[in-house]
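Checklist before submission:
- one chain only
- standard amino acids only
- sequence pasted in full

Submission:
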Amino acid sequence: MQYSYLIIDDNEAHVQETLSAFEGFPEYYCVGIAGNKADAVNKILELQPHIVFLEVNPKKKNTGLSLAVITDLYQYLDRLPYFVVLTATQKFAFDAIKAGVQDYLLKPLDRFELRKTLFRFQKTNPETVNDTICIRSYGDYQFISLHDIVYLQADNNTTDFYLTSGRKLTAYKTLKHYEANLPLFFYRIHNSYIVNSNHVSRINTGKSLCYLNNGEVSISFSKTFKDNIDTIIRKIAPEYL
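Returned file contents:
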């Protein structure tokens, strides 16, 4: 299982420290970074991260970063992400508990303390994922492991699945349907393509190309989905963003 997290912090150096602390936890990947309250709320609603790391004592007071980020979300969500306050002082701890924060970590972030937080998160948020998808063609049901899917390509109202074995299967559903139903390691990078990020071996932002299967396949990505490309890079190599 892979889990996404969002960093809400207006201090770039602290953001990089948090990203570096996650290098030993490959099942977690950063889905985005927000530096002010409005952007934080929007990204939580849009990206739906599993965990949110929130700075409540920002470097710049006009960013609006505070526990109010959490209270605002109750207007829109029945269930909030797992919130972790990450700040340099303990003085907000009592208010954080009242606001529903699940954990509280002090800066500079200690990797051992982060590990304990992640264990607590997984214990309270168990998720089971079916790693098989059924591709149906009339009366023919084919059961495919999600990990065997390299990428998907739209073909009008059908979708072609390209597998690690070299096979191509056609499903009679749209790419939009699969975008909404595939797990988080699949990303749409073009109107016509969804890729399995576990098979991404190279990304050339200058040529807008994404390489899969150790470079055997290259497909274009569009500016519309550049945020998804950035997320893939953060997931694979967070130190380069």
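Reviewer check: The first helix runs from residue 12 to 21.
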